Amino acid sequence: MNSEPEHSQGEGTAPSGVGEEGSASQKQGPTRNKKKKNRGRAEVATASQENDHEPAGESSDGATSKKMAATVDIQRALELLSLGKGKVRTAKTLEQAAVRWRPMVEKDCSEVHKLLNAYLNKFLLLPLFTLDDFKHWFLPRDGIVASYVVEKAGKITDFVSFYTLPSTVVNHPVHKTLKAAYAFYNVSTATPWIELMQDALISAKAQGFDVFNALDLMDNKEFLEHLKFGIGDGNLQYYLYNWRCPEMGPEQVGLVLQ
């Protein structure tokens, strides 16, 4: 994702609520690879890029992930949550979501950096973020990336981030841009995944996003179906040059690739 918010993902029109496959090319980012024989892990060290804020990500030819999307404007997804037959509760408002979390600030980076790396360490394919890398990719910037933390008793327990990647809408008399949010890296240790990502949808809607996309990797399947995400029409293939890497399922991949 480029630093300029005007960067468009592609020239095609994306229907509301359906995640489209990105057409923008991915810059190459890994600088080294480490493999552990007993687990077949592949770790990619990320390199901060001066003028680019797009997630660095090259991965294995054995890993595949699918893009999912939630239409942020669907009232049913944000207003009602079924608790069983005859039981319905209203979802949280933006103000209620704000009670749970707050935007991440620079003084949080050291703690959240450790939290994220500890979470990613359970996957077989993962990036290695230095503290400087973490600040580069995750410190909030308007129109580029949003990051939030949940803090309880002075300790940060959960982390959510999503980035902006608008698409150009062609041949439409009114709408020229589709503002899309993409789930980046998220960590849930105290707050349930569904509640954490529901707050992300509410915040994205409040910021004017039209659609919220997520890949079905890491622990994302914990919330995709419950929050009414629709399955996209493409798969992402991961490649690691000529590095040997075992075949992996999406739940074993901790590297976000577009």
TrEMBL record:
This is Glycylpeptide N-tetradecanoyltransferase. The keyword Transferase applies. GO terms for cellular component: cytoplasm. It catalyses: N-terminal glycyl-[protein] + tetradecanoyl-CoA = N-tetradecanoylglycyl-[protein] + CoA + H(+). Belongs to the NMT family. Residues 1-67 are annotated as: Disordered. SUPFAM superfamilies: Acyl-CoA N-acyltransferases (Nat) (SSF55729). The keyword Transferase applies. Keywords: Acyltransferase, Transferase. PANTHER family: GLYCYLPEPTIDE N-TETRADECANOYLTRANSFERASE (PTHR11377:SF5), N-MYRISTOYL TRANSFERASE (PTHR11377). One of its GO terms (molecular function) is glycylpeptide N-tetradecanoyltransferase activity. It comes from Cyprideis torosa. Adds a myristoyl group to the N-terminal glycine residue of certain cellular proteins. InterPro entries: Acyl_CoA_acyltransferase (IPR016181), NMT (IPR000903), NMT_C (IPR022677), NMT_CS (IPR022678). It comes from the Eukaryota. Residues 99-249 form the Glycylpeptide N-tetradecanoyltransferase C-terminal domain. Pfam families: NMT_C (PF02799). Its EC number is 2.3.1.97.
